[in-house]
Automatic annotation (TrEMBL):
Coiled coil: none
Organism: Sunxiuqinia elliptica
Protein origin, superkingdom: Bacteria
Phylogenetic classification of the source organism: Bacteria, Pseudomonadati, Bacteroidota, Bacteroidia, Marinilabiliales
Protein name, as recorded: MotA/TolQ/ExbB proton channel family protein
Membrane topology recorded in Swiss-Prot or TrEMBL: Multi-pass membrane protein
Length: 127
């Protein structure tokens, strides 16, 4: 399954919002990396924003899943009898947005941890 299909299956609205959080996280990561490695500035301010954007991606994915499941359960209630295969397929699709958000969160956590460690070592070396 290609990424474009997954994007639309996960719901374009929430997947777009999660992507925006991911892009924001990457922008702040690049900015902090440039400060550290190119400009040689050692300031920890703003590093927490990387983790914030990653966290927002997870929460947005979970919110999208919750809203999607509520709508699906409402449709199931109206329809009455639904096959287990159809239900399993719907549950699988409902996990796309949270997994996407979790991937962005894991990436942000790794970047945040590396930058925090590098900043700490630079500060200790300057003392």
């Amino acid at each position: 399954m290609n990424p474009v299909e997954l994007f639309y299956m996960g719901g374009p609205l929430f997947m777009s919002i999660i992507t925006i959080w991911g892009v924001g996280m990457l922008i702040f990561s690049i900015q902090k990396g440039m400060h550290l490695f190119v400009q040689k500035k050692v300031t920890k301010s703003g590093v927490g924003l990387i983790l914030l954007f990653g966290s927002l991606a997870v929460v947005t994915g979970l919110l999208g899943q919750a809203i999607g499941l509520m709508m699906a359960f409402s449709a199931i209630q109206v329809a009455g009898d639904v096959s287990p295969a159809l239900l399993a397929g719907g549950l699988r699709v409902s996990l796309i947005a949270p997994v996407y958000g979790l991937l962005i969160f894991v990436l942000s956590l790794v970047i945040w941890g590396v930058l925090k460690e590098v900043y700490q070592r630079k500060l200790e070396a300057n003392e």
